[in-house]
Design brief:
Layout: E1 9-14, H1 25-34, E2 40-41, E3 47-48, E4 54-56, E5 62-64, H2 80-83, E6 84-89, H3 105-121, E7 126-129, H4 143-146
Parallel strand pairs: 1-6, 1-7, 4-6
Antiparallel strand pairs: 2-3, 4-5
The protein binds zinc ion (ZN).
């Protein structure tokens, strides 16, 4: 489904996992499959359940999960699955499973670069956190303020 014209939001998420605990796309895929997320069928015919568009790892490297022109599965509220590009960083929880901004310096750098790149592509897009639309702590920092002038 082509939906470029609809994209007006960049939404930041976290995996809700503790510090220094890496999460692979494969693992995320299994988690989201278990939650019955709507898959995206990739060009090779594989079903991809992981609902974000981009996953940012602890070392600042990132992986593309869904192309921009495919709906995400990451926020039921506000029609965000249709409107937003979803970037998720690995982390967001402390060792007691309390919400916590655990972003590493490389992750912060990559998130900023990705936000700037996407804002270049979608100049009118607002940058928000999941928590701005849903009763959650995710992504455990104020994305709206942090990226206001990105
Ligand atoms: Zn989220």
């Amino acid at each position: 489904m082509k939906r470029k014209a609809e994209i007006d939001t960049i939404m930041i998420h976290c995996t809700d996992t503790p510090p220094r605990r890496e999460v692979s796309v494969k693992e995320l895929d299994a988690w989201h499959k278990a939650r019955n997320f709507e898959p995206y069928v990739d060009p090779k015919g594989r079903k991809v359940y992981a609902g974000y568009h981009i996953l940012v790892h602890l070392d600042g490297s990132y992986e593309r999960i869904r192309p921009d022109d495919q709906r995400g599965q990451h926020c039921k509220q506000g029609n965000m699955n249709n409107r937003a590009i979803a970037i998720c960083y690995v982390g967001g929880s402390d060792n007691n499973h309390k919400p916590c901004d655990t972003r590493t310096e490389p992750q912060k750098k990559t998130l900023l670069t990705l936000v700037r790149t996407l804002k270049g592509r979608y100049p009118h897009a607002q940058v928000v956190g999941h928590r701005d639309y849903a009763p959650k702590a995710c992504p455990c920092f104020d994305a709206k303020t942090e990226y206001k002038n990105a």
